[in-house]
Design a protein that fits this description.
The chain is α+β, with helices and mostly antiparallel strands. The protein has a single domain (3-76), classed as Metal Transport, Frataxin, Chain A (2-Layer Sandwich), CATH 3.30.920. It has three helices and four strands, in the order H-H-E-E-E-E-H. It has helices spanning 3-11, 20-29, 64-76; strands spanning 33-38, 41-46, 49-58, 61-62. The chain is globular and about 30 Å long. The protein starts with a helix and ends in a 9-residue tail after the last helix.
C-alpha cells in the first residue's frame, strides 16, 4: 500500500487490517531504523526523538494499538516522510 494512502487510512482511525510490511515501510519512511528484534517485537529508533516504536506481526498484520502509537509520535514530533526519488 502506498504510504500516503496508508497515512490517510490511519488518520481516519482505520487501524485494523494493516499489513505488517506496510507498517514497517511507513515507519522507515519517517526516518525510523530497525534497532533490534526480540521475539516478535521489532523495535525501531529515530535519531531525533527519544521514544522507540515497537511493532509486532500477528497473522501478517500490525497490531492496531501500535499503529495508533506510531501516528501519535508522527504528530507529536511533526515528523515528515522522506521522499524516495
Amino acid at each position: 500500500m502506498r504510504r500516503q494512502i496508508l497515512l490517510q487510512k490511519l488518520a481516519r482511525g482505520a487501524f485494523q487490517n494493516v499489513a505488517f510490511a506496510d507498517a514497517v515501510s511507513l515507519v522507515k519512511s519517517f526516518g525510523f531504523n530497525l534497532a533490534r528484534v526480540s521475539g516478535s517485537h521489532h523495535v525501531f529508533v529515530h535519531p531525533k526523538i527519544p521514544e522507540v516504536v515497537n511493532l509486532q506481526e500477528v497473522g501478517g498484520e500490525a497490531k492496531p494499538y501500535q499503529l495508533r502509537q506510531v501516528l501519535k509520535l508522527i504528530e507529536r514530533y511533526n515528523l515528515k516522510a522522506e521522499d524516495k526519488s
